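Incident log, support desk, overnight shift.

02:14 A customer reports that sequence design results differ from what the structure should imply. Their input is reproduced verbatim below. On-call engineer (initials T.W.) acknowledged and began investigating.
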């Protein structure tokens, strides 16, 4: 090997070795949140405010609010309108899913969401969470909505991931939206093609246990107009 080749090889090795600390501890590693990280709530006052931020004040100010203490959700504030709010999380570091449920969702879908987050907080892997929830429905411990129900996800502070599994990527706040659960409906019923390009409404029948019509809305729960997707 010539002296010129040796010099070039030394320079290449230096570039690799010198870059490693940055790749391992700097911006290179920061792009991918840690996984799995068991859900942990914020201090309770902050957690309450975050939960309430999921829906307009008209709804959330009169709703029950639940918070995670250890591995169990408890009612931290009593409401009067039959609705309820909480912050759910998956196993991605930094995930925050503030959700408020209407009366039917509070009776049904919210209990599933609570159980999922509780199992994750207890250290259960996502695949095992899926199996446990499937078994809970089979045993009658969890129940499907018996009529249309709505969940509000309109918090500007939401931090969403594309899937609760390890391959999920950070989406951020995406857009304020509501999710309407309706049994027995299909995308075709609404005229949506299987590869629909409509972006303001969509229907997830593959990843959700029950069909959910997802509808984007023009404002966050605090009344701020949507100007751009927030990360």
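02:41 Re-run completed on a clean worker. Output:
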């Amino acid at each position: 090997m010539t002296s010129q080749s040796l010099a070039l090889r030394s320079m290449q090795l230096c570039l690799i070795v010198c870059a490693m600390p940055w790749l391992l501890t700097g911006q290179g590693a920061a792009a991918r949140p840690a996984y799995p990280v068991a859900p942990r709530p914020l201090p309770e006052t902050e957690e309450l405010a975050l939960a309430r931020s999921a829906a307009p004040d008209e709804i959330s100010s009169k709703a029950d609010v639940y918070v995670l203490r250890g591995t169990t959700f408890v009612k931290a504030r009593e409401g009067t309108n039959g609705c309820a709010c909480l912050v759910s999380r998956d196993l991605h570091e930094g995930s925050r899913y503030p959700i408020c449920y209407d009366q039917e969702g509070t009776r049904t879908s919210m209990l599933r969401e609570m159980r999922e987050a509780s199992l994750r907080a207890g250290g259960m892997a996502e695949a095992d969470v899926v199996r446990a929830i499937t078994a809970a429905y089979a045993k009658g411990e969890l129940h499907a909505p018996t009529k249309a129900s709505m969940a509000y996800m309109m918090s500007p502070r939401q931090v969403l991931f594309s899937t609760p599994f390890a391959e999920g990527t950070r989406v951020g706040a995406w857009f304020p939206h509501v999710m309407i659960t309706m049994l027995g409906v299909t995308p075709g019923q609404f005229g949506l093609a299987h590869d629909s390009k409509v972006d303001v409404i969509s229907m997830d029948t593959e990843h959700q246990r029950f069909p959910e019509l997802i509808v984007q809305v023009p404002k966050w729960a605090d009344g701020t107009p949507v100007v751009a997707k927030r990360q």
